[in-house]
Amino acid sequence: MVIIRLKEITEMSSEDRAQKLVTLRTELVRIKTMVKAGGAVDNPTRIRELRKTIAQILTVENEYKLGIRKAAEEPEKKQKKKAEKPAKEPKAKKETEETTSQ
Questions:
Q1: What's the whole-number mean pLDDT along residues 13-36?
Q2: For residue 17, which of 51, 49, 54, 46 has the smallest C-alpha distance?
Q3: What is the CATH topology of the domain spanning 1-72?
Q4: What is the pLDDT of residue 47?
Q5: 43 φ, ψ to 5°?
Q6: How far is the C-alpha of 14 from the C-alpha of 7, rounded, in Å?
Q7: pLDDT surpassing 80 at residue 82
Q8: Are 48 and 27 in contact (CB under 8 A)?
Q9: Residue 42: which of 57, 25, 30, 51 has the closest Cα?
Q10: pTM (whole model) above 0.85
Q11: What residues contact 34, with CB distance under 8 A and at least 6 apart?
């Protein structure tokens, strides 16, 4: 069960990622507190999912800061450039002397 997909994380703005990070961290602290207190947790694998999602958000945010991952606007520009390029026309076959002499 995925909390949030990587594609959704990359499409978020920096502020949205920071806000989501805060909510996930508070949920993780709440669940860990329940475990330490000896209480039963409904879904123990939720801890792993939360940690993984937090790591993904931090990684994407760091990639944007370092310039490894470009802003979401740039892939759209690339798609427009591809659409604007005319398709290559197939090369015409060279006529041989036989077809021209007939």
A1: 95
A2: 54
A3: Helix Hairpins (1.10.287)
A4: 94
A5: -130, 95
A6: 14
A7: no
A8: no
A9: 30
A10: no
A11: 40, 41
